[in-house]
Amino acid sequence: MKTRNVRGPTDLAPKICGGIITILVGKAEKRKEFYVHEDLLRSCSPYFDAALGKDWKEAGTRTISLYCDDPEAFQIYTQWLYSGKVWSASRTHDARPLSELLRMADERNLLAKAYCLGDKFLDHLFKDCIIDAILECFKVKDENKKVYLFGKRQVDFIWANTTCNAPIRRLILEQYAYRGRVSWDYDIHCKEFLVDLLREMYQTRIHPGRKALDSDGNTCKYHHHAKDQPCNKRIEEQAD
Ligand SMILES: [Zn+2]
């Protein structure tokens, strides 16, 4: 049985020093307060680094308000900041009954929101980890060996909250182009997504040998990092 190494290199350790920043997330009754180390926030996110810089009022109040964002998705972000893991899954990866898979729709919503939060915070390493979590989530099968990918709700959210060249859009377009079925309901989707999908379908016709999703084991094509930059998977292996 493979055991996980407990030692990690000091330069990859979370930066848990400096003051504590209060972050208020969500609207009215759903609002939650989070307390995060300033050094950790600023080292991971250019957005928070700028917000806590001397020119912004938040630097004086030590409080940041994110009233339009989702507290559950922000919790995923803070947990990731401190642990390097995306804590969104159920405990088992065995075949699931349908009721459990319906609950997993909540996980897919959460991961879609978490990705867009990472986009807003300009935390590209977090976004790459969310991509890997999404691909893991897609591998879960029900009793009939059926897998569940992103549906209308997640697609709509991502198309409304990311730019046209966001890597997560590529992942979803390939998902639909290679695994879509004639029986699926396409007229529920927004026009922008359908036009992008049409272009993707033409690409699959022009390049019939292209591999879908991570079937070739290469998830880096959906990551933000450049080809010559280290992947979060390799960073994790270094730490293990
Ligand atoms: Zn990568």
Automatic annotation (TrEMBL):
<feature type="domain" description="BTB">
    <location>
        <begin position="21"/>
        <end position="90"/>
    </location>
</feature>
<dbReference type="InterPro" id="IPR011333">
    <property type="entry name" value="SKP1/BTB/POZ_sf"/>
</dbReference>
<protein>
    <recommendedName>
        <fullName>BTB domain-containing protein</fullName>
    </recommendedName>
</protein>
<dbReference type="Pfam" id="PF00651">
    <property type="entry name" value="BTB"/>
</dbReference>
<dbReference type="InterPro" id="IPR000210">
    <property type="entry name" value="BTB/POZ_dom"/>
</dbReference>
